[in-house]
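Hi everyone, sorry if this is the wrong subforum. Our group has a chain we'd like a structural model of before ordering constructs, and none of us has done structure prediction before. Sequence below.
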Amino acid sequence: MVGGFTVREALVPRFLSLAAIAAIATTVSMGVTALSFDPQSWPAFVVGNLLVAAIYGLIGVLAGAIFGQLGATYFVLFLAMLGMGILQNPMFGDESPHGLAVLMPEYGAARVVVDGAFGGGFSAWGAGAFALVWVASLGFAVMLTLGRSLGLRRVSPPA
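Answer:
Right subforum, don't worry. Here is the predicted structure as tokens:
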């Protein structure tokens, strides 16, 4: 317990804040996108962008615990530029990411975004599942990291 709060009471608000920030960033991004681009499938496009936001938000939390605020900012910016800007960019290469791109955390979410933007029908189910696995894994890692940094331990009920 920390300050009288249980593990759940201490971690849930942090995850809700992260989800709210990802939703706000995605909403603003979709509003700006709508001014000049009309994706083939708005729902898939929005969900893919939400997954990217969640993945990078969770990576930012983990990076903050390791590198501090400034180091984490640079790390997340570098990772996003490498992943989304270079390796996942359909304008480079043969339009299909391969090699290192497949190992990047946003790979599945980026495939959902591209499918929603340019595909006639949604066919990125596997990529979406892959992105959800990344979100769940990163969420679990963040839960452990925040719990440890706050000094939280599971409190057993009195016997």
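For your construct planning: The radius of gyration is 18 Å. Residues 42-87 form the longest helix (46 residues).
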